[in-house]
Amino acid sequence: MPYEPIRPEPLKQMLNKLREAIYEPVAELEVTAWVTPEPVSYLDRKTGTKMTLVHGQRWGSLWDCAWFRFAGSVPEHSRIEDLVLLIDINGELCLVDSKGVPVQGLTTVNSEFDFSLGLPGKRVVRLHDMFLSGSDIEVWADAGNNDLFGKYRGGTLKEAVIASCREDIRSLYYDVEVLLEAAEQLSAGPARKERIYQALYDVSLRLTDISPERIAAAKKKLAEPLSLKGGDPVLTISAVGHAHIDLAWLWPIRETIRKGARTFSTVLRMMERYPDYVFGASQPQLYDWMKQHYPALYEQIKQRVREGRWEPQGAMWVESDTNVPGGESLVRQILYGKRYFQQEFGLEMKSLWMPDVFGYSASLPQLLKKSGVDYMMTQKLSWSEYNRHPHHSFLWEGIDGSAVLTHMPPEDTYNSPAAPRSIAKAEREYLDKNVSGHALMLFGIGDGGGGPGEEHLERLAREKNLLGLSPVQQEPSWKFFERLNEERESFQTWRGELYLEKHQGTLTSQARSKRYNRKMEKALRELEFASVLAARLGRAYPAETLETIWKEVLLYQFHDILPGSSIKRVYDESLARYEELLGQTETMIADTYSYLAGHIAHGKTASAQTVIFNSLPWERREWLRVNGRWHHVQVPSMGYAVLSNDAGHEADGEAASSSEILTKTPGEGADAAAEGRSLENDKVIVTFDQNGAILSVLDKAEKREVIQQGRLGNDLRVYHDDGDAWDFRHDYAANAGTPLHLLSMRELREGPRIGLVFEYGYGESSLTQTVVLTAGSRRIDFETDVDWRENGKMLRTSFPVNIRSNQVYCEIQFGSLGRPTHRNTLWDFAKDEICAHQWVDLSEPDYGVALLNDCKYGHRAIDNVLDLNLLRSSTFPDPEADRAEHRFMYSLYPHQGNHVQAEIYRRGYELNVPLRTMSLPDVSDQKTGKLPLSQAFLRPDHPHIMVESVKKAEDGDDIIVRLYETSGTHAGTLLRLGFQADEAWIADLMENRLAQLKLNEPSEIALSFTPFEIITLRLNVPEL
């Protein structure tokens, strides 16, 4: 007689039957809610609009908040230990104790999620003593009318009941689930697969009813296949609980704080039930919110950290975007992130935790290594659309040659269900399993928080060493990385950026945020430099204020805020804060420079005078308008000079000579002129067509045409763009786009500046652009104001230049990166939209053209065309994204030599860091006269060395000076100080002293750089 064929479908029906039988409602809960538009505290929980709710009743709209009270009584003849509460309000809930401390988070079962990774709902509440008073039940909970992904699910009370829980059925359910899925993952034929199916089939025959006796018999039957162990493992999987929490995305920042409380309290309750459970969470900003808003919850977290069961992860303040933030921003992300975890938990972070960031700058490896971070974890590259990254475990080498060990969980998700299919996929897909016996699994519900549920932990309890699957052990990620590091010599190296072949729209979306970020980075650099100089004169360094401002700027660099992929409310709030922060920072800069000006010695006969401050590390000669007059000034490196306001006419001899200020009025050999549709100065002639585009740029000295013949430069065009904030079509340029309509043109004459002002229209939008030439400069500026009101459109400009090069050089943090201008391979083709900071450059060996900007990041370089993405207008997740007024500037800069010889990095900084002026006080208001009329405080003598930051040390009064080599070559420099240093040390990015340097004299330090190397100095400097 043959055996009965066993099919999986009836076994799955048995599984569903068991799941439905776990809980049985026995009584309704009374539900009262106090609804408010914004969160209120536990003490104010009854201040909202009171509602008594029944099943199916609506309680609010999207983003509404409420305090819920659930009340009931334990039914007669029921055992409390057999009872649970089932609660679902079609939103998110945080249950609290009698003091308002978070106890557990709940999520509607209707929440959006990728159901292939599991079910996101959390609705089961165990009856803790804190919810009971005798037989009376009372539960308070803080509610948000949104699901995990910020979606509105109707705002109705879905479920609020007391239910009995059949623990025996619940346990059997997970036995069946794990065995059934394990069998499905095995290939056809093995005895293990058939034995599991047979055992499950036998159990299904007995479960015609689910009495306790039959459930016990079924448990006994399945104990044997569950007990069978694997042999010596080839691959061991390290599992750590995870709850990826975006600090803002489809919800506002205020909801993230509550998501943190809901998620972390759930973790703590699960740890009480599952002793093997190890959980990890990144982002000190999130921990700091818990410390501020939920201090009792935070203390519970700290206790679990001390036990080693809760792992603080990652080295950055937030999981930051790494394309758009400047280099010093990334340093501060690591500095403040690592310091927080060290100060709060006594832990040294050795890994960067970046699972969801949209590509990784090639500057990062050096920043990590110089911060004591040896490892990086991500999985985002699995999202690339054209090419598969060739490794899951590899050495990632940056532009300077530094390398960090990098791992991507081979399951390609940070929301693993921790099911047998997860383990099987990890082993099947692991690209480096030929040389590695270790892989990482991140399990839990994430993006909107939530974290692991009981289902994850029940599965893992059965999968520790289950025959047919690789063994899984729960442990913190640092243990995994230490074991992976033992295999380091076997891994391959990936050199350069980790480019994500997706989400290129985030280099341009929400342009105002990107502009504010650039302006804040430059303003903070200026303020720190000025504050260090002022501190030497006795003014208190504003360390606490600077840290507060920096941390808020770093928050907005989170990978769904600065890239532009959050909802409208996030930008309404962050743009308002940016405006306040920039205003505060600029006021502090002015106050600090005013203080410095008060210490500059000047004579009694001096006329009205102005101090000009230069924070860049080279002497600058520029036209500057002061009190209505134009002056051609010369200001020393990272210092200042005094300008008499009569300079060039009846200048005070003392001020002019002491400052070495050059003054010149237009007409003295530095003319610029506008005639018809052309602009001309002593360097270039720019000719325009009838629509305002550039027909020609003639380099007068080189007698060379810059624009390709027959093409148009500054070709402003609007392209169809029906993408979202993340993406636009790769083939958008297949349609040539629509030029703007020129409405008017007029001349501009301002001293040494001449220009043409073009006014354009397109649809409901207007654009005013002033194209400017300045006497003595080859830089062509495009000062642009746009009132952008389009839907589904993208505004770009392009310059087809008369240059042939296979590579475009792009400024990134602390250096530059070469990228192909051809599309020979699919890898080249995929890297179409590229990120650059202040400049991109196409050069032949003896001549080139750079495109500079003051706040743009999305570029394209194909063949000989430099293209800049100016504005987009996506409709999701912000339906009004970028429909606003915008101001920005970009510049075309033709030059002799290549980008290194032409010192293009300097031109980018000069565009972004203007000279600053401050009036000298009257002699009677002069403070000390300790400072001369002109001084350079820092001056490297090598043209390729940039001083990126000057600040006070975090843990003392030493001065931190951060420099880097800009061109990709070895360089030696003598750094001349405008002050005496008692000691000089090489420090790491955490400002720890590494090696003492010899001072040639109290004001000179010799330094040697390798290509793109960052050197941080720690100077002990006496006060004046």
Question: Would you give an account of this structure?
Answer:
By secondary structure, this protein is α+β, with helices and mostly antiparallel strands. Mean pLDDT is 95; it is low at 648-670. It starts with 7 loop residues before the first helix and ends with a strand. Strand 29 (694-699) and strand 30 (704-705) form a beta hairpin. The protein contains 18 helices and 56 strands. Helix 3 (191-206) runs antiparallel to helix 4 (212-227).
Overall outline: elongated
Beta-strand portion reads 25-35%
What is the number of E strands? 56
The low-pLDDT segments are 648-670
Task: Summarize this structure as a short list of keywords or feature phrases.
1024 residues; alpha+beta; seven-stranded antiparallel β-sheet
Describe the secondary structure blueprint for this structure.
Layout: H1 8-21, E1 23-28, E2 30-36, E3 49-53, E4 65-73, E5 83-88, E6 92-96, E7 102-107, E8 124-126, E9 132-133, E10 136-144, E11 159-165, H2 167-185, H3 191-206, H4 212-227, E12 236-241, H5 253-273, E13 279-282, H6 284-293, H7 295-307, E14 310-313, H8 327-345, E15 351-353, H9 364-369, E16 375-377, E17 393-397, E18 403-407, H10 420-429, E19 438-443, H11 454-462, E20 472-474, H12 477-485, E21 493-495, H13 511-535, H14 543-556, H15 568-597, E22 609-614, E23 620-626, E24 629-635, E25 639-644, H16 653-659, E26 672-675, E27 678-681, E28 684-688, E29 694-699, E30 704-705, E31 717-720, E32 738-739, E33 741-750, E34 753-762, E35 765-774, E36 780-788, E37 793-800, E38 807-812, E39 815-820, H17 826-830, E40 833-835, E41 839-843, E42 847-853, E43 858-862, E44 865-872, E45 884-896, H18 904-912, E46 916-919, E47 934-936, E48 938-940, E49 945-952, E50 959-965, E51 971-977, E52 983-987, E53 993-996, E54 999-1001, E55 1004-1009, E56 1014-1020
Parallel strand pairs: 12-19, 12-20, 13-14, 15-16, 16-18, 17-21
Antiparallel strand pairs: 1-11, 2-3, 2-4, 4-10, 5-8, 5-11, 6-7, 6-10, 9-10, 17-18, 22-25, 22-46, 23-24, 25-47, 26-27, 27-28, 28-29, 29-30, 31-32, 31-37, 33-34, 34-35, 35-36, 36-45, 37-44, 38-39, 38-41, 40-43, 41-42, 42-45, 43-44, 48-51, 49-50, 50-56, 51-55, 52-53, 52-56, 54-55
